[in-house]
Structure formats: structure tokens, C-alpha cells
Amino acid sequence: NAGVTQTPKFQVLKTGQSMTLQCAQDMNHNSMYWYRQDPGMGLRLIYYSASEGTTDKGEVPNGYNVSRLNKREFSLRLESAAPSQTSVYFCASSEVVNSPLHFGNGTRLTVT
Amino acid sequence: EDQVTQSPEALRLQEGESSSLNCSYTVSGLRGLFWYRQDPGKGPEFLFTLYSAGEEKEKERLKATLTKKESFLHITAPKPEDSATYLCAVLPGGYQKVTFGTGTKLQVIP
């Protein structure tokens, strides 16, 4: 039972490049989330998907897009990376919205 | 605006030295409060959910309590393996999502 799996683990981009962060969960959870974690700040919600077929903006959605591909998979896309997007990105899932979160181990992204 | 403040930012304990971490919050209509543990290079791991003032939850050396304005995570006789960052998150009323605190980094020295 892998839980929440994120790929890649590390990524370095140049300003203006694009990339997609992948996330998959095997717990049959309905809700999935993308967070970013920066030093001195709490985890901040970027986007979430309450259930398959729906997505909604979180606290810091600018510069990102998401796709809920199916019940298991939720991807995060950076269309034109900026240095301000240097962060650690966590995917999480939960049985339903606002129930306890299960996190992946993160993607460490550096934008130069 | 919903606010969550955790204190202290960092705490260093000798093995066996009990202490408490604090999570104070200002939210409109608390629906729940969560505690997570985060090890370096890993994602947070869920520990407890508390729903109402007076509620307590325990797991091994950890006990979480909740009042109307704050929550405490008590650590009894900690061991080095309890070293981690402990995160608090609150779920306000209405359609809001959880708000996370910045965490307390705990180091337990043998």
C-alpha cells in the first residue's frame, strides 16, 4: 500500500519553462489537494479537487493549473515557471473534503 | 481572517523531559483541529483530530487537548525518535479549508 505517490522528487527549472507534477493515491479517497511549503510559512493550499470531475482554487492558485485525471490521479502544472515558485510541493488526499489529510513525500522544485 | 500560531518555534528537550507544544487559533466557528508530525524530507503524517473543547486524544507518548482558543500537544518522557516538526491545522466553519500553523520543531537529545 503506497499511499500518496508524487513524481518527480526533485526538479530544477529555468524561468519560463513549464512542467507537470504528478500525484497518485491508492486509498480510494475522493478528495485530493496540492499544497506548497515555504520556510517560515505554513502549508498553503494551491488547488483542490473535492471529488472526481471537480477542481477549485485554494489560497495561492496564481501561476498554476490542475487536472483531476481520474479518481486516483491529480496533476499540477506550472505553465511558465517563476523564481517565486521555488518551493516544496505536497500532494495530499482525504476520504472527503476536510477529513484528515494523507500526504506524499513532496517535490522539491527550484526555479532559477 | 483565520489565524493559527504555534509556539515555541523550536524546542530542545533531554530524553525523558516532558513538555507541551501550543497551538493558538482565531477562527470563525471551529469545526476541527488537526495535529500532524513531519520528519525532514517527508510529508506530514496525521496524528489526531479534535472537534470540541475538552476533548483529548492519546497516542503512545503524545496527548492532544483542546480548549476554545488553543490546543496543546503534551509529550511525556520523549525519546529521540519523537524528534520532528509538529504541525497544527484548524478547520473553520462554513466552506473554508484548513489553515496550517508554521510548526514547532522538536529535538529530543539522548
Question: How is this fold's topology laid out?
Answer:
The complex is a heterodimer of chains A (112) and B (110).
Chain A: E1 4-7, E2 10-13, E3 19-25, E4 31-37, E5 44-49, E6 56-57, E7 64-68, E8 74-78, E9 87-94, E10 102-103, E11 107-111
Parallel strand pairs in A: 2-11
Antiparallel strand pairs in A: 1-3, 3-8, 4-5, 4-9, 5-6, 7-8, 9-10, 9-11
Chain B: E1 3-7, E2 10-14, E3 19-26, E4 32-38, E5 45-50, E6 56-59, E7 62-66, E8 70-75, E9 84-91, E10 99-100, E11 104-109
Parallel strand pairs in B: 2-11
Antiparallel strand pairs in B: 1-3, 3-8, 4-5, 4-9, 6-7, 7-8, 9-10, 9-11
Describe the structure.
The complex is a heterodimer of chains A (112) and B (110). By secondary structure, chain A is an all-beta fold. Chain A contains no helices and eleven strands. In chain A, strand 7 and strand 8 form a beta hairpin. Chain A is globular, with a radius of gyration of 13 Å. The N and C termini of chain A lie far apart (36 Å). In chain B, strands 2, 4, 5, 9, 10 and 11 form a six-stranded mixed sheet that branches. A five-stranded antiparallel sheet of chain B has the order 1-3-8-7-6, with no helix packed on it. Chain B starts with a strand and ends with a strand. The mean pLDDT of chain B is 95. At the A-B interface, strand 5 and strand 10 of A face strand 4, strand 5, strand 9 and strand 10 of B.
